[in-house]
Amino acid sequence: MINIETLMHLLDLLGTFVFGVSGAVAAINRRLDIFGILVLSFVTGNFGGITRDLLIGAVPPAALINAQYLLVSILAGFICFFWYAGIDRVRSPMLLFDAAGLSLFAVTGAEKAIEYGLSPVMSALLGMLTGIGGGMLRDMLITDIPQVLRSDLYAVAALVGASIVVIGHVVGLSYGVSGSVGLVSCFALRYMAIRYGWHLPVANISAQRRAEIERIDNER
């Protein structure tokens, strides 16, 4: 039977891969060259995990001492570079791969925080941070507003998935059960938000002011 450390490592690598794909797709959409694609793939796939490890004292971070993370990121980048046409057939490929990476890292981040003795609340928050970190830096590097700062459900979905893992730990469920439920819940919530336009409330502004803001943004 697979032990929890091996399971977490495999999920971490899978999260690195799917987040790497989302980063590579974003790079291709912005017409970056192969180097830019590989850089964005690595950054997107590993920044959240590196941030998590630094905050909990797991140093050096796993992504910097285990070559598997680099190889998985490079693999994701090359797959997108050579077979982008196939990936692009998927509706909103970057958003879907991003949702998968968000879900995987939210649950693994929360579990690793628990293992390092963080409180339930901080474990859930760190799981959320692990999930949103890579996508946030990806969006910043391509000069886009990070998904986490938009009104659609992004960080909320990660927090839900991470919280389920934490609650499962508190009530004595195995990580296999709580992690699976958390992963599916996070992905489902994020997918439904993408598909149906679910979002958090935003401040009301007049149509005239909105048009002004859009005009200023377009002039930049």
From TrEMBL:
<feature type="domain" description="Glycine transporter">
    <location>
        <begin position="10"/>
        <end position="84"/>
    </location>
</feature>
<protein>
    <recommendedName>
        <fullName>Glycine transporter domain-containing protein</fullName>
    </recommendedName>
</protein>
<feature type="transmembrane region" description="Helical">
    <location>
        <begin position="6"/>
        <end position="28"/>
    </location>
</feature>
<feature type="transmembrane region" description="Helical">
    <location>
        <begin position="67"/>
        <end position="87"/>
    </location>
</feature>
<feature type="transmembrane region" description="Helical">
    <location>
        <begin position="35"/>
        <end position="55"/>
    </location>
</feature>
<keyword id="KW-1133">Transmembrane helix</keyword>
<dbReference type="Pfam" id="PF03458">
    <property type="entry name" value="Gly_transporter"/>
</dbReference>
<keyword id="KW-0472">Membrane</keyword>
<feature type="domain" description="Glycine transporter">
    <location>
        <begin position="96"/>
        <end position="168"/>
    </location>
</feature>
<dbReference type="InterPro" id="IPR005115">
    <property type="entry name" value="Gly_transporter"/>
</dbReference>
<comment type="similarity">
    <text>Belongs to the UPF0126 family.</text>
</comment>
<keyword id="KW-1003">Cell membrane</keyword>
<dbReference type="GO" id="GO:0005886">
    <property type="term" value="C:plasma membrane"/>
</dbReference>
<feature type="transmembrane region" description="Helical">
    <location>
        <begin position="120"/>
        <end position="141"/>
    </location>
</feature>
<keyword id="KW-0812">Transmembrane</keyword>
<feature type="transmembrane region" description="Helical">
    <location>
        <begin position="153"/>
        <end position="171"/>
    </location>
</feature>
